[in-house]
From TrEMBL:
Boundaries of every NADH-Ubiquinone oxidoreductase (complex I) chain 5 N-terminal domain copy: 72-117
GO terms for MF: antiporter activity
The protein's name in its UniProt record: Monovalent cation/H+ antiporter subunit A
Domain NADH:quinone oxidoreductase/Mrp antiporter transmembrane: 134-409
Sequence ranges assigned to domain MrpA C-terminal/MbhE in this UniProt record: 694-777
Source organism of the structure: Effrenium voratum
């Protein structure tokens, strides 16, 4: 179905958060502690805007809107609205509304709260631009903007070294992946000739049928895997928990870390359902799922436990997307929705506990259910959904994904086993987050624990209840949200029929029972599991996080070595390197493409023409055998004078006169400089150094000569000649075409050249007028009297 063109309202919805980012610091300064309420209206209105797309998108309709951005390059600020982008738009704006409110309570009284709001809104706008992006180049710009804004948010507490390291790590990893994605987009444009995502999706086999499928696939995966923290790039996400909790709840559960999953889902019609796709994605996704859950069990910090399960959940989503199986993809969409709701709620719960109790360590928490009853209820509801228990949306997602993995013929059994183990361990973490802090005897905490303000518990309660509500209206959820999103992944309209309760005993239900039973058993052995995993990791020692530090350290050492090698402080080295790379630039392309020009026949010269060439050659020889630097400089002027004579013979007296002046001034200036500098009269370089310089010089001369030959052998384009001949008289009222070009058509260039000549003349004048000051003769000290000598002796 061809997308319908809509008005620019959706474009303004993408830009609205950036406008709010400008206003936020001033509004925060004006309203103090109440700024969160009016600021939250911005994402709330954006959410309502996307609500308007739910009904038409559920019927299979798609929409586009565009504004010219850089039309000469084919770059538009354009959006594409379908089921996938609508779902992400609702999550970004809906959860973003409560994150703004939560940040208002969490950072209440913080002197930089306005700056934090500004960064948060910039990220929100970048994320909306990413998921709605239709033009590949503008989509990439928003992709990188999410990395930059997340860097600002993760490093918000920039006075702490851990925050700075986590921010830099996230920027390096995701930014590097972004460059890979840009290369992939460029190859897509090169292979297809298209730059709009909506056009590409209209021809889903266009990339698969091209010869660039493999590099495009690898480059897109590089961007997606780094953004969504797939193994072995998973380490940056837990470290990003150094950010304030509102950042963790927003960026690292519902939005930024799902950007990679979004990209894989968006590209599924173009790249999916191939042997490479169904091999690489399930493999890396499954490993990430297991690594994330195992590392989560080891942790005792609430945020780190949730962070590692986020890594695991992203792995599960990638694994399901990689199957290209319709039911598994349906499970991926459902789980994406469920995870955004329960993980956003649980992160906010963890932050509230830390804010009101003074610690996030589960071993130092207990008995908080009476002190924090609302937070306790929200934690339980969200944890039940995370554990995949009925009657929550997480339970339905688990049933559907098991149905998909079990029914996948290729690798259904190992993928299903991986999903069961991963989901069992996630149940362990969900139980630990919901039970450990709130049950058991009351533990003395650093702060007197009490329920937080409404700004802190509104988000967790609403998100947890939404997960419950969507499960009770499962059929409607499937029609309005899951079906349209699944249609985007499959490239064809697909209807989904969801039910909360299984209609019969089948494999997915049995797998759910196994998952719950295994999870409960492992939870009872949680302390023992932590000890085992900790000992295993200690025996392994090295990991990707430490490897990142070694990688950065290696880059710094290499940069230091290269700087010391190149930046020697000697002009001789700088000139040699400059001419060396000039030679490479002019010779290497011709060698690689075998496009050197054909050598022309030597023309018949008159005797005086041969005489001028002989003068040039003799001048060159004089430079090489000169015994002093001053002699070499004077001999160098012979070359310029010979060129000036050639200009004169070919009917360009004005150009010849200019060449004479330039050469004369150059020799005079260089000679004066030589007399003022404390240099040895001769060049004392070693024979190897002279040979190297000679080889580079010959290479540069050869390369430039071949370049000039290539230019002269091209068909002559007389467009400029005809233009100047035709208009010099009629427009500039001049008969001398060269003068007209210099004075009228190239007036500003000529003015610049005159300025250079004047500046050179002033430098010559300054050098001539410099005089060495005679040594100052000091007056002899007065003779000391006998009295003063006696006094000094005493």
């Amino acid at each position: 179905m061809t997308p319908a063109v809509i008005d620019d309202t959706t474009l303004y919805a993408v830009l609205a958060p950036f406008a709010a980012a400008v206003v936020a610091p001033f509004l925060t300064r004006l309203l103090k502690h109440n700024a969160a309420w009016p600021l939250a209206l911005v994402p709330a209105l954006i959410f309502l805007h996307f609500v308007g797309f739910i009904e038409p998108v559920s019927r299979g309709e798609t929409f586009v809107a565009a504004k010219a951005w850089a039309p000469s390059y084919g770059i538009n600020f354009s959006v594409y609205v379908d089921g996938l982008s609508t779902l992400f738009g609702l999550l970004i704006s809906g959860i973003g509304t409560f994150i703004i409110l939560y940040a208002g309570g969490y950072l209440k009284g913080h002197p930089q709260q306005g700056r934090f709001f500004s960064f948060l809104f910039m990220f929100m706008g970048a994320m909306l631009g990413l998921v709605l992006g239709n033009n590949l180049i503008s989509l990439f710009i928003f992709w990188e903007l999410t990395s930059i804004t997340s860097f600002l948010l993760i490093g918000f507490d920039h006075l702490r070294a851990a925050s700075r390291r986590a921010a830099i790590q996230a920027l390096v990893v995701t930014g590097g992946g972004g460059l890979a994605l840009l290369a992939g987009f460029i190859l897509i444009i090169s292979a297809t000739g298209e730059i709009e995502m909506s056009v590409l999706l209209g021809s889903p086999d266009i990339i698969k049928d091209s010869g660039l499928y493999l590099p495009i696939f690898l480059l897109v995966l590089g961007g997606a895997f780094t953004k969504s923290a797939q193994f072995p790039f998973h380490f940056w996400l837990p470290n990003a928990m150094e950010a304030p909790t509102p950042v963790s709840a927003y960026l690292h559960s519902a939005t930024m870390v799902k950007a990679g999953v979004y990209m894989l889902m968006r590209m599924h019609p173009l790249l999916g359902d191939t042997v490479l796709w169904t091999t690489v994605l399930p493999l890396f996704g499954g490993v990430t799922l297991l690594v994330g859950t195992i590392l989560a069990v080891r942790q005792t910090d609430l945020k780190l436990m949730l962070a590692y399960t986020t890594v695991a959940s992203l792995g599960l989503l990638v694994m399901l997307t990689g199957t290209s199986h319709e039911k598994a993809l349906e499970g991926a969409v459902l789980y994406l929705l469920a995870h955004s709701l329960f993980k956003g709620a649980l992160f906010m719960v963890a932050g509230t506990i830390d804010h009101e109790a003074g610690t996030r360590d589960v071993t130092k928490l207990g008995g908080l259910r009476k002190a924090m009853p609302v937070t306790f209820v929200a934690a339980c509801l969200a944890a039940l959904s995370m554990a995949g228990l009925p009657p929550f949306i997480g339970f339905i997602a688990k049933e559907v994904l098991y149905y998909g993995t079990w029914g996948w013929l290729e690798l259904g059994l190992p993928i299903t086993i991986t999903a069961v183990v991963g989901n069992s361990l996630m149940l362990v973490i969900a139980a630990a987050v919901a039970i450990k802090p709130f049950f058991g005897p009351k533990v003395e905490t650093p702060k007197h624990a009490h329920e937080g303000p409404v700004l802190l518990f509104a988000g967790p309660v609403v998100l947890a209840l939404t997960g419950l509500f969507l499960a009770f209206i499962a059929h409607t959820t499937g029609i309005l949200f899951v079906g349209p999103t699944l249609s985007s992944l499959l490239g064809t309209f697909t209807e989904v029929d969801l039910h909360l309760w299984p209609t019969k005993i089948n494999a997915p239900l049995i797998l759910s029972v196994i998952t719950i039973g295994l999870g409960i058993f492992l939870f009872t052995q949680l302390d023992r599991l932590r000890e085992i995993i900790a000992s295993i990791l200690k025996s392994i020692g090295w990991g990707p996080d430490q490897g990142f530090d070694q990688f950065v350290s290696g880059i710094v050492r290499f940069a230091t070595w290269l700087t010391r090698l190149v930046q020697t402080g000697k002009m001789q080295t700088y000139m040699l390197l400059t001419f060396f790379f000039t030679a490479l630039a002019v010779l290497l392309p011709g060698y690689l493409t075998n496009s050197f020009p054909a050598m022309p026949k030597l023309p018949e010269h008159r005797f005086y023409e041969w005489g001028i060439l002989l003068i040039a050659v003799l001048g060159l020889f004089a430079i090489l055998v000169a015994r002093t630097r001053l002699t070499a400089i004077v001999s160098l002027g012979v070359q310029g004078f010979a060129v000036a004579l050639i200009f004169m013979m070919f009917g360009a007296p004005d150009l010849s006169f200019t060449q004479f002046m330039v050469e004369t001034l150059s020799v005079v200036i260089l000679a004066l400089v030589m007399t003022r500098l404390n240099l040895s009269p001769r060049d004392h370089r070693t024979v190897p150094a002279r040979l190297l310089a000679g080889v580079v010089a010959v290479a540069v001369g050869l390369g430039l000569g071949l370049t000039l030959l290539s230019i002269t052998q091209q068909p002559f384009d007389s467009t400029l000649s005809v233009f100047f001949t035709e208009f010099s008289r009629s427009i500039a009222h001049g008969r001398n075409i060269v003068n007209v070009i210099l004075v009228d058509f190239r007036g500003f260039d000529t003015l610049g050249e005159i300025a250079v000549v004047v500046l050179a003349g002033l430098c010559v004048l300054a050098l001539i007028r410099v005089r060495t000051k005679p040594d100052t003769v000091l007056d002899p000290p007065p003779e000391r009297t006998g009295q003063s000598q006696n006094a000094e002796a005493r």
